[in-house]
Structure formats: C-alpha cells, structure tokens
Amino acid sequence: MKLYDYILSPSCYKVRLMAALTDVKLDIRPVDFHPGAEHRGAALMDLNPAGSIPILEDGDLILTESSAMLVYLAAKAAPGWLGSGAAEETARVQQWLSFSNRLTTSLGAARLHDMLLRPGDITELRIQGIAALREVEAGLVEQGLRGMRFLASDRPTVADIACFPYVALAPDGGVSLDPYPAIRLWSRALRSLENFIEMPGIHRLHELKPDPHSEPGEA
Questions:
Q1: What integer best gives the mean pLDDT of the chain?
Q2: Disulfide engineering: 128 pairs with which of 106, 204, 218, 219, CB 3.0-4.6 Å?
Q3: Which helix or strand (DSSP H or E) is residue 112 part of?
Q4: Which position has the higher pLDDT, 110 or 40?
Q5: Which whole-number Å values give the CA distances from 100 to 97, 188, 206, in the listed order?
Q6: Across 59-170, where does the E strand assignment appear?
Q7: Burial of 126 (0-12, 13-18, 19+ CB in 10 A)
Q8: How confident is the model at residue 134 (pLDDT cuts 50, 70, 90)?
C-alpha cells in the first residue's frame, strides 16, 4: 500500500496516523509539494486529476480523499475504528468525517497562508476557523455530558483522526486553542493512544508541557 505523502501536510498525516494506530504498513513516497509542486506534475496528475495529496494506492485501487483513506484502512485492519455500527454512532462518525473538510478549508487554508504565503483573506479564514473550532468544542462538551471523551463514541474513531490534525495545528494559522478546554483534553487523549505518531508541530504526549489551563488531576 503506497502513500504519496508530504511530511508537513495534515491531510497526509491523518493517513500515516491511522496506519500507525491500526498497524498497517505503508510504503511512503515523499512528494516535493513545496516548493517543487510535484503534485501538479504529469505523473501524479494521472493518479489524481485534482492535483492534490495524499494519494493512497493499493493495487488497482487509488484513493484521493483522506477521509476515504481513513475508512479504508480501518475497514481492512481494525473495523472498531469505524464505530460500533449502531445507527446513531454511525451517523455521528459520518457527520464528523464530512465536517472535517471545513477544518481543511478554514484552519488549513489559514495555515497555508501563514506558512507558505498562499493567497487568501486571512481574516475571513480565521473567522471561519474559529467558528469551526467552536462547533468541535460544543460537540465534545455534549459528548462529555454523555460520558464520552471522543467526537462520535466513548472510544476514538476515524472521526477523531479526520478532525484532529487541523485542529491541533490551528495556531500555525494564527488561531489559538486557549479558549477550548474540551478540545485540549480531547487532543491529549488522542496523543496518549498506543502507537500514536507525531508530525512537525504535533508532539507525543510525553513531550508536552502540562496544560496550564487544566484542573488539578487532569491529564
């Protein structure tokens, strides 16, 4: 299974993280996304006419959407990551998978603007990103009232992996996570998972400083 990958891409990281958590071995094919724009070259455009990465290739199957890749990896190696199968939980998983695109187009675009000087209305992107973060925070608070720590279930699912990277990297686009205690606790819960891997800007739990906003006894 081959992943066309850029180390600084949160969308590529989602797939690497899902593979690590489900113990799936990937053949990583680095792509010169910046400054080389290799993803716009003929070879990769043949695989994905949209000119984006990641691209996951498994035999004759080619996937070009990161959420589909998460579902595929889970279905092949660890179906529990898709949820319990109960109708309500399945719907929550699907809703957060769809919602994750809003994080990409707001917080992700703000990050590209600040880090790679991509054009965009940074004020509007940050407004959209803050609105999306507030929805994640509200969703996690509601889940907490049900006794659940994760977006769709009492255990992590592909929904969490789909949303986590762009939320965690929001400060790279000038959006602080300080106002969102539920998000910070959720992030720490995900970082504590066995086989969690990092990317630049997202570190393992043992490398994090204590959360100055947490209550005594909180992890």
A1: 93
A2: 106
A3: helix 109-116
A4: 110
A5: 5, 19, 27
A6: 61-63
A7: buried
A8: very high
**Rounded distance, CA 12 to CA 96, Å?**
18
For 14-28, give the DSSP string: HHHHHHHHTT---EE
Element (H, E) at 2: strand 2-5
| Residue 71 CA neighbour count, 13 Å, CB half | 12
The owner of tokens 């010169």 is 32
Please give the helix or strand (H or E) that residue 125 lies within, else none.
Answer: helix 122-145
Token pair 């509601």 in the structure block, residue: 142
- Give Rg (Cα) of the chain: 17
Q: Rounded to whole angstroms, how far apart are CA atoms 211 and 36?
A: 38
pLDDT at 69 over 50: yes
Amino acid at 4: Y
Task: With CA atoms as reference, report the closest residue to 152 among 67, 198, 85, 66.
Answer: 85
Between these two residues, 15 and 203, which has the higher pLDDT value?
Answer: 15
- The two tokens of residue 148 are 């659940």
What is d(CA 27, CA 49) in angstroms, rounded to the nearest whole number? Answer: 22
